[in-house]
Design a protein that fits this description.
Layout (H helix, E strand, L loop, with lengths): L1 E6 L13 E2 L3 H9 L5 E6 L7 H12 L3 E5 L5 H14 L4 E5 L1 H11 L9 E3 L4 H11 L11 E5 L2 E4 L26 E2 L2 E6 L2 E3 L10 H4 L3 E3 L2 H14 L4 E4 L8 H13 L6 E6 L1 H6 L1 H10 L1 E9 L3 H6 L6 H13 L3 E8 L6 H14 L3 E6 L7 H8 L26 H16 L6 H5 L3 H41 L7
The chain binds cobalamin and iron/sulfur cluster.
Length: 494
Amino acid sequence: MKVILISMPDVVPIIIHETAIHMPNLGIASVGGHIDEEHNVYLIDLIRKRRSARKYLTRTMRKIRPDLVGLSAMAWQYDTCIRLAKLTKHLLPGVKIVIGGYHATLMSKEIAESPEAEWIDFMIRGEGEEACRRLVNALAGKDQFSSIPSLSYKEGQDFVHNPRGKTLDLSRLKLPIRDKRRLTWGYHIMYNKIELMETSRGCTRSCNFCSMKHMYGRTFRTFPIRRVLADLDDIYYKRKTRWVFLVDDNMVLDPRRVIRLCDAIIERKYRNLNLVVQADCISMAQNEEMVRKMALAGFKSVFLGIESASKANLETAGKANVSGAARKAVENCHRYGVMVIGGMIFGFPEDDEEAVIRNYEYLNSIGADASYCQILTPYPKTEMRRALIDQGLVTNTDNYKLYSGLWANVKTRYLESDRLQYLFWYHRQKVLGWWDPSGIVQSQGQGWISIWMYAFKPALKVILGHVLKKHGWEGRYEREVRRWTRLNAFEDLD
Ligand code: B12
Ligand code: SF4
């Protein structure tokens, strides 16, 4: 069988311009790596073909003529996913389509009953490695659709949903595909080559806006350290890549394991290795020794999920009060030279304009080196969505294309959604202002920091200064909104 697995071209410019970070999708790489060797598997990350998706796919599909095309999508990418399914069926009428990832997992029943079901042959809910391996074998006549856990397949026009399978034994997973079977290339973070890997799956915390527990349940499973090292070796020696993003939901949940893992990485003496990870404030605040070891192992940057400066908002989100812990976590990271990206969420039910300002001021006050700010999004099947709908605060319930954190799909008790979105943008400019790389960021010696400081920033200041003079803040904002709207339009796919 010939299989092509595809990730979506959609991007969100939440942290930085949409061209500055282009990472491969680990989900399809891991699913592809697990398919039996007798089959030919290819990967396509359309993020690298954003401007020519149709042309590229037409050429590639006609050349390879796959039997099965797999599409991976989060909620906000599902619209593009369906357009790609239609295009694929149009190019190769006999091809089978399987969809997987978060949207398929959370919304399989709704998708099965929607008009889009016409374009989809299979859905895989949850972890895809074993189910997709068996699906490919079943298409080759060596397995039965009806006996594959987590598979949804069609009988006539209707979908049959097999029961969900158990979470996988991570020690049995093969390495993800990063070789020439990956047909797209050029992945980078600020123009440094980057690869993704994982050391664990899941998280046992209870944030009620998070989709993750629908993928893994409320569990935390770890990969054996030898497997993590094999993966890192593959990236470092074979792909000659020095930047690695560890995509774990919350790697630091078990600090003693993190220390063992860091010791093992330190022992391998990789030179110039740069690791990036996301972590929770409490673990990073309470375990200074772990942070020290992380820095020694090569961790350069940590994304901290702080979410809000307000205790009430954190309670609404199902989180402990992490305000004090966030400050301490930043201190710990800075003590060992690790850069902190602070993640904040805006638009909780009680937020007014003052709360928006306070959230940004808080981020400044704890000394985060960069920020990752988004608007509260009512992702399908989350407890937060249910609660917000019950309170009449969700303003867009079904256009998932806007569920990327950039757009306001909710209102608060004090702010209509348009106003929330504007204030979220406006106070970011006013309170956070132009990004000024801290000493830690500069000491990481990146060429792009100089380019930002001495070329882009001054040029942008002049250009946007003119726009502001001519059109005012509202005018500047409207231009931004128009740009965001065009960003993931992909008109060539129609
Ligand atoms: C790493 C990560 C990122 C990275 C991106 C990495 C990349 N290459 O794109 C960063 C930090 C940039 C990021 C940003 C965002 N992310 Co993110 N991210 C994750 C995270 C933590 C891990 C993803 C991952 O690689 N997992 C490891 C791989 C192996 O698992 P996987 O991708 O889930 O794939 C498995 C299954 O889903 C399935 N599968 C997946 N695809 C397919 C396809 C087929 C055909 C099959 C059969 C199976 C299958 O099988 C895979 C193997 O088991 C997840 C949470 C999580 N645990 O998954 C959130 C998550 C996916 N992100 C999410 C969101 C919303 C976003 C943002 C929109 C948020 C925002 N506003 O900032 C942005 C958008 C990014 C963009 N593309 O521009 C949400 C999605 C929610 C939803 N319901 O859609 C998640 C679930 C976070 C959450 N807590 O809710 N993200
Ligand atoms: S800590 Fe992160 S991964 Fe864990 S539940 Fe909260 S948002 Fe989700």
